[in-house]
Write a structure and sequence with these properties.
It is a single chain. 52% of the residues lie in helices and 20% in strands. The chain is an alpha+beta fold. It has two domains: 199 residues, no CATH class; 181 residues, no CATH class. The strands form two sheets. The chain has a six-stranded mixed beta barrel. Strands 2-11 form a two-stranded antiparallel sheet.
Length: 412
């Protein structure tokens, strides 16, 4: 331990003639603890919510959408799907038709987003087959009272809006004409409800209905074509690198590959912006503690004026005196940062393990506050705390270093 650190520790631990100074120092440490802990906990909660939303969106949808410009239909989609599936990093691909329609049941009607899927491959790009809460994903022809009807699967909240609470009901789907005119007529098709799905994302579960690609091609007049090809990856973080490779494999224009981030860009960007905005706001707590450090160190300098004069008369340089009081600020910062980080880790661990803070599942889908701790966030918060504490100690350290040894001990 060098000379400056030894003296700084002695000053920090020494009893003060004015107890008020010790109280301010203690408050400074507590302020840093609260600021660091609050920042770490809030950032971990933001990470948890972001991860939860991202995982639900990605599991309900695919990592990459391959479509044509101007939303034109894709022909020869089976060969294109096989080509995409062969690209390194791609784990699955499945064709899909996306259309808007209206469902009618028991005198009630609801607008729906129709997803026509291939039951054999949809499990490669979506959790729909695993999301069934009633019935099963059977989109083939069903025999109902000696009549043949295709199967349909409804989102949970869409089914409730249609007063359907279990499989077995019959619904009628109307197609929306592509071009509105006096001669345009909507097609209608009856479907037998074979299952109810819950993806865990309310905005999807209240509008999605799943039918087979063959029935959608008939209903929406799309013979031998689909709307897009959904692609899943081994690592969704590589979507931005693999998307250009898919476009190149398919020959470029008119094909385009949009990643999961592109599909929800505004949502992800806002979550990231909100996270760092709160980081700046909550850093003000540490800043308040830093002002306490300034006042505490200024009063310590005033109290230790005689000792500073003696140290200088014994050969201590102004730089050494400055380092002593800078070290005081560093000690407060380290103590507050370590205790605050440990406190935040304990709170986050307890929430992850025991779910102390609960949420209404009908509103948030999840039943407890999600937490995800990241070492980088803890490191950034610790760095912010240390920098602010060090800056707070600069002025008192400078004032101490400028004291004249003769003036310091003249009246002692």
């Amino acid at each position: 331990m060098n000379f400056e650190s030894f003296v700084a520790l002695r000053y920090f631990r020494a009893k003060r003639r004015t107890g008020f100074i010790s109280i301010i120092t203690f408050i400074s440490v507590i302020g840093v603890v609260i600021g660091v802990a609050a920042l770490d906990i809030v950032l971990s909660a933001f990470n948890g919510f972001e991860s939860e939303v991202r995982s639900r969106l990605i599991s309900a949808d695919s990592h990459i959408h391959v479509r044509k410009f101007y939303s034109n239909d894709i022909e020869d989609y089976q060969a294109l799907t096989d080509s995409v599936r062969a690209i390194p990093g791609v784990t699955g691909a499945s064709p899909m038709i996306i259309k808007e329609s209206v469902l009618v049941s028991k005198g009630n009607n609801q607008p729906v987003a129709v997803r026509a899927v291939d039951p054999k491959t949809v499990g490669q790009v979506s959790i729909v087959p695993k999301s069934m809460v009633a019935g099963k994903l059977d989109l083939g022809m069903q025999t109902v009272e000696d009549k043949q009807m295709p199967g349909i699967v409804l989102g949970r909240y869409l089914a409730e809006q249609l007063f359907i609470f279990e499989p077995g009901d019959v619904v009628t789907m109307f197609s929306v004409p592509r071009q509105f005119s006096l001669m345009a007529r909507a097609k209608a098709q009856q479907f037998f409800v074979t299952g109810i799905s819950e993806l865990g994302f309310y905005e999807y579960d209240k509008i999605l209905a799943y039918i087979s690609i063959e029935q959608a091609q008939k209903l929406f007049n799309m013979p031998g074509a689909v709307s897009r090809i959904d692609v899943s990856l081994k690592n969704y973080e590589n979507a931005r690198e693999i998307a250009p490779k898919i476009e190149e494999k398919l020959g470029g224009y008119p094909f385009m590959a949009r990643t999961w981030f592109d599909q929800n860009k505004s949502l992800y960007s806002w979550m990231e912006y909100e996270k760092w905005l709160f980081t700046i706001i909550l850093s003000l707590i540490i800043t308040v503690a830093a002002f306490n450090i300034i006042s505490s160190l200024v009063m310590i300098v005033m109290e230790k004026t005689r000792e500073i004069g003696i140290l200088k008369s014994m050969g201590a340089s102004s730089r050494s005196i400055m380092r002593i009081f800078l070290m005081e600020g560093v000690i407060i910062g380290i103590l507050g940062m370590v205790i605050g980080s440990l406190l935040a880790y304990g709170v986050c661990w307890a929430q992850q393990t025991f779910g102390l803070v609960t949420l209404p599942a009908e509103v948030y889908i999840i039943d407890k506050l999600p937490i995800q701790m990241r070492a980088l966030d803890f490191t950034i918060v610790a760095a912010i705390a240390m920098v602010l504490c060090l800056l707070a100690a600069v002025y008192p350290a400078y004032k101490a270093s400028r004291l004249s040894p003769v003036e310091s001990i003249r009246y002692e």
